[in-house]
Give the backbone structure.
Amino acid sequence: YDKNLLKLSIMLKKYKQYTYTLKKN
């Protein structure tokens, strides 16, 4: 399994959470 891919998916999750919190506020 590619480590970079894992890193990317984690970053994407964090990014989605981040944008979600921005929209709420």
Summary: The chain has a mean pLDDT of 92. Residues 1-25 form one domain.
